[in-house]
Each structure stands twice: as structure tokens, then as C-alpha cells.
Amino acid sequence: MFKRLNSSSPWVWMTAGMVSLCLVAVLGVMLLIGWNGLTYFWPSPVYQFEIKTPSGTETAYGEIYGIESVSTRQLQEAGVTLQDPTQPTHDRLMIKIANREREAHDFISVLAQNIVSQKALPDIAVIERAENGAFFGIPVGYLHAGKLVEEGITSAFYQQKIAQADILRSEIANIERTEIESVNYRLNALKQDRKRFEQKGKVVPEWLQDEIDVLELRYQSIEEVLMKRRSDLALDSLVVKDRFGQSVRIPLNNVLSIWYPNAMSWHDKLVHWGHQVVAFVTDNPREANSEGGVFPAIFGTVLMVLLMSVMVTPLGVLAAVYLHEYAGKNAFTRVVRIAVVNLAGVPSIVYGVFGLGFFVYFVGGNIDNLFYSDALPNPTFGTPGILWSSLTLAILTLPVVIVSTEEGLSRIPISVRHGSMALGATQAETLWRIVLPMASPAIMTGLILAIARAAGEVAPLMLVGVVKVAPTLPLDGNFPFLHLERKFMHLGYHVYDVGFQSPNIEAARPLVYATSLLLVTVIVGLNLAAITIRNHLREKYRSLEQDI
């Protein structure tokens, strides 16, 4: 036995077992997140419940959100009268009844013994709205310009009207995000130029005032077109009967989609699920991030990681090259190496405080005083933004890139450097043409580790740029196109906000899983791209290493 323990075989198997256990645990977590996140978009059946209450029987439309077992003793202590107290447990259903503006709560809890009947009526519809969440009811008519139409109304008719409303909504969104934003951006720039002339005591040029007047007239004309589109969209309404039997008018400009989950086939549900997933990835958030999509958060996360990579890679490589190739082996370099290693263990929130104090207040404040003084007291760069977030995370991940690059440089034989210099190359030429290309896989390894850590960080970003809802993206069609001073949304912060700051946490809980799955997918995608580049570089310089 001692001979076997002294051999490497048991330890190899133990290591392999622990790695397998870790892989199974990670796979289990991913399956849990994926199941809870992706099933949220599947159209669940909506039942008509007849519920027994102390005052009689009550009708409710709702989805079964969950079922839990409650002990008989716990129910008796709460004063609940049980039909069969001999049973050890009783089922309690959590039912999502929606209709937020007409109900006291989005969810109700009902004991199974109090449910008199439960029917999946085919004419019950789920109406997804831009405000106040979903609405459960039975469509009974269509209101057009004050005239009610009740005959000949089918599901296809509603779908056609909603498709027409979508076209109007797209036109409105295009006017708001393209035309008005462009005119407003140019108008603000010209007004700042006029303010600059006035502060210097100079006469405002006529051409400048003429351009401002033209843009203001253009803004008014666009606004008139926008108001006309909005009024056209507000003409029509859906008439829906709720659980109380009352007819409710839902304006068409508030209706995003409608479907009948109880009448859908498996294929229809699969198609609907795909549409909902695509909408989640491509749409903007609504209802305090508890509804809608997460596209701005995806865009902000990817852009921040790309900017961070562009900043941290040259800094980390230059620092590693200096420490390994040029710096002497003395006490100073040993102190620097110890400092680099210790920086990797500093809590991320400390980097956020440093970024807020140094980048935002000091650097950004001085930039505003030098170049944007006419815009003060409203700061331009002296406020959190995506530039300062990227720089903060670049410093946070800098030790990882330095250590990885140094390890790559140390693996290159000294004979390669001597041979290059013997052929007449300088140290800089040897470094640029021979050493760095051979160390590029190690550099990419450091970048992969940096991306993996930076993409999931949330604490420092809360101080230096990330917000709950960003009105505009950092990238648009206005010069200089990439606006580094703007705030942005982040998937990690979105998970925190929806999970802990949402006004309706129970309804938003599935979005936490869906956004977490999306965040992991984005990180894996960025890492796979970096790994592909690293493998290409490794194969490219493998022949050179073999020749050496």
C-alpha cells in the first residue's frame, strides 16, 4: 500500500476525480441557470380558477407559478381550517394573476383544497404590454376611433392590427432615436459655441445664429410628425373582459403582442418561445428592468471589455518587457514584482474608489476645466462613464497580464536572443521581431484571464460608470460616434438590480436566471474568440520553436 501511495497513480486519479467533480458542479449550475432562464419564455397555460373564499366563490385568471407543500401543523397554527387535517402536508399554489393596475398583487397564494375548478379555456389571451406588465383576459372587441367592433373578430385580426401598430412604433422609435437625437445633438453643440462667444464678450456670428434657428425649426417640424404618429397609434384599442366580467379598454399603443397559450400547439409554442428569446436579446428594458430585453446591457458589457482589452494589453506587455528584458536584478525590481503580485489580491471595490477619485474627479475634472469649461457646471468627462470604467478594470486586471507575459518571456531560450544579436540585430529588433511573436500565446492567455475577470465585475463599475438605465448607447451616428463620456448598462449590474432592487422581485426572478445565462454566454464567447487567436498564434510559431 505504501509503495502504491508513493507512486503517482493514486494522486493522478485523485486529481482527475476532483477535476471531474468540479466540471459536474459547473455543468449542474449551468443547467440550473439555463432551465430556469429559458423556460421563462415558454408560453405557460392560463387557467380559469374558481376559488372558494369566506364570502363565496371568486373567479381568477392566472398561471401556476409554483406549488409548495405546507405542513398541516403550520397551517393550523395560522388558523386555517383544513378539510382533511389528517394529511401531513397540503399543497399551496402560487398563481400569477397579472393585470397589475386592477389587482392588489401580481401573485396570490391559494391552498389546493380551496380551488373548486380549474379550466384551460382556449379563448383566454395573454396580452404583453409596454406598461403594467401582462394582462390576462378574454378579448371581446376592437375599438377604432370610438366605434366598437365585436363581430368577425379573430386572433388573426388582432395579430394584423398589432403588426400595423408595430410599424408605427418602429417609425416613432426611428424618429426619436435618429432624427430628433441627431438634431438635438447638433443644436446643443451650436448652443455651446454661442455660449463660448458670449462668455468671451464677442458678437455671435450671424451664420451661427442662423444655423441654430434652422435646427430649431427642423426640431419643431419633426416633433409635429412625431405627435401625429403617436395620435394615430392611440386611436385604436383592444376590448378585453377580465376575471370580474368587466370590459377593459387597452390602448393599442400599449400592446406589444397577444397570444392564446391554451389554444397553441407544441410547434406554435416553440416558435413563440424563439420569438421571445430573440426579443429578450434585442429589445430595450421596460418597467424598471423587470420587463423587456437587455440589449443595452449586452452592448455595454461587450464594448467595455473590448476597450479594457485595448488598454490593458499594451500596458501589461510593456511592463512585463521592462521587468524581464531591461530592468536589473536588484531590490527595486523585486519590490515592483511584489507590488504587482499584491495588486492582484486587492478587493475590486478599492479599485472602484480609486477610479472614482483619480480618473473621474481628478483627470475628468481637469479635462472639463481645460476643454469643456463652457459646459460647466454640467460635467462632460468629470462624471462616471464607460472610459473611466474601462480604465479602472484595466488597472484591476493589469497584474494578470504582466505575470502571464513574463512567464511567456521566460520560456523563450536565451540562445534565441543571442543568435539574433549575433546576426546583427539590436535588442529592440530582437524583442520586436523574435521574442514578442513567440510570447504572443502567453500574452493572449493573460488577456483571456483578464477578460474572464473583468466581464463579471460589478462592484467597481457601480462607482465609475454603470447605471440602472442608460438613455442612449455609447455608440451612435453622431460625431465622434464613440462617446466615451457616456454612462452605460452592464449585464452583471442588471442581474443585481433585477434580483435585489426590483419592485416586484417574484415576477422578475426568472429574468435573473436568463440574464445570468446571457452573461456567462457573453464571457464564454469573448474567451473563445481570444482562445482561437491564441491557438492560431501558437500554431504559427510552433515551427520556429521546433527549429530552435
Short description:
With 548 residues, this protein is of the alpha+beta class. The protein is built from 15 helices and 13 strands.
Give a written overview of the molecule.
The protein is 58% helix and 14% strand. It has 548 residues and is of the alpha+beta class. It folds into 3 domains: 47-121, no CATH class; 135-257; 295-547, Orthogonal Bundle (MetI-like fold). Strands 6, 7, 8, 9, 10 and 11 form a 6-stranded antiparallel sheet that branches. It has a 5-stranded antiparallel sheet with strand order 4-3-2-1-5. Strands 12-13 form a two-stranded antiparallel ribbon. The radius of gyration is 31 Å and the shape is globular. The mean pLDDT is 86.
